[in-house]
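Replying to the earlier thread about multi-chain prediction with a worked example.

Input:
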Amino acid sequence: MEKFRKSERLCSRKSIGRLFSGGNILFHYPFKMIWLESAGENPFPARIVIGVSGKKIKRAVNRNRIKRLIRESYRASKGRLYESLTLRNRHIDIALLYVADNVYDYDLIDMKLKELFNKFIQNDEPGKEIL
RNA sequence: UCAGCAGGCCGUUCCAUCGCUUCCCGCUUUAUACGGGGGGGAGGAAAGUCCGGGCAGCACAGGGCAUCACGCUUCCUAACAGGAAGAUACCUGUGAGGGUAUGGAGAGCGGAGAAGAAAAUAACCGCCCCGGCAAUCCGGGGUAAGGGUGAGAAGGUGAGGUAAGAGCUCACCGGUCCGUUUGGCGACAAACGGAGCCGUCCGCCCCGUGAGCUGUAAGGCCAUGUAUAUUUCGGGUUUUCUGAUAAUUCAGAAAGGCAGGGUUGCCCGCCCUGGUAUUCUGCUCUGCAGGAUAACCGGAAGGGGUAGGUCGCAAGAGGCAAUUGGCAACAAUUGUCCCAGAUAAAUGAUGGAAAUCCCUUUUGGGAUACAGAACCCGGCUUACAGGCCUGCUGAUUUU
RNA sequence: UGUCCUGUGGUGUAAUUGGCAACACGUCUGACUCUGGAUCAGAAGAGUCCAGGUUCGACCCCUGGCAGGACAA
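Result:
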């Protein structure tokens, strides 16, 4: 259950380009989430790409650390998101960008990410039929 | 004991649970998909990209000029602007030490703002001589000892000498050059003898050594797709020789011209690639003239698609240990080990111990630097909590 | 990841074989005007991104940092 496989990550250059050019944006500090409905050929309901700006976080050490923290937190808390998506048989691509310009610790990032996903699920449910 | 100098080294460790990446096994399985088991998984600077190589592609007969880099000596090294051991001069620290410079030219040419008389054929003030009857003064000449300017002013001190002075002469001192001897592989050092030869800095200049260009997004293969689409304009189409043949034909070779490219920049020269074909008309028909159209080359106009996989790519100027040679950098021999390989990019999270340091105070609380591989090595430079080892210096105390 | 370039008042630019850091706009003060603009007169504002070195002397030359930017799928 708490695995994080390659097919759960978004690796295609084309898909990422499509995502950034026409994705829906959901903002919850310190994250910016861009998501888009996808074809749905892979076995997992979501594919994710994590980004940290080199403009905001100068040192590569800190950038790597933030990415690892986000990935770890995502791995732990993606269950609820998957549940909500599989219930309605949807597949999405997600880009998760870190927009703060200082480093936070694991507890805060974990909490904020959970809040973000709750927000996403709540926003998604009533608008389901329209989409 | 305190303060410091030089050189070298380390730069957190262990356990549990859950993950990521890569390789192996092939237990399960149609299947190396998913499970399962096992091994490996950031640094001394991985950084800056400042030098030098390896490797790859392209290019390459050669010559001249220019450009750039380096520049005391000997050695080390694959190589270097790196390193080791030394030489000379200057600066700096009480000291252990530290820092900087050093190819050649006694040549020649150019420059040195402002200031100053003058920045190198030196006369502003001063000093001395002569002339203007005399005189504060004016004119001519001599003089580099004194003054002031400047970063720098024609070696320094003393004596002789002189109208006044001056290496003009002499003694001593400093430097330079020449010669000889000794020591050293050498840079150079020391000693002796000789020459009145004597301002500083920079550039041009001369000599030696080195430098082809581009970088793994190099480059190779596979897959997909395809535009060498198409339109238009311009260039372009020779000669000689040899053999065969009925031949104006065919085959081969050479040269020239044309187009493009290369040779780091320029010139000469050279090299590479392409094509050098077909046909019509006229005439004087082994030939000449004119035209047309291809191949090919160049300019302009002119849509889209793919952007994946794999090799390169992890056994190397490799690490570790011992011995030997060397003052050392380093080298040789033997033994032993296999030690990251991602690609929207792995090396992480949580909890608990330990170690070191700090604050408080006996309950504890906090901190652990600088920083993240991207083709690979050798250096340099920069950042860095804390700690260890070796040698040495200064101060104080005790014996 | 690789290859390059730039850094001067608040802003945009000069400074040429190394020799007093200049100009325009802007800012401030005064004059003119009923007031503002325009105009005129005057003033302030930098020590050249930072740290060393060469030199008598450095924006300029050399070395090392820092910051910003460009190009190469």
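The helical segments of chain A are 13-22, 60-87, 106-124.

Feel free to reuse this layout for your own posts.
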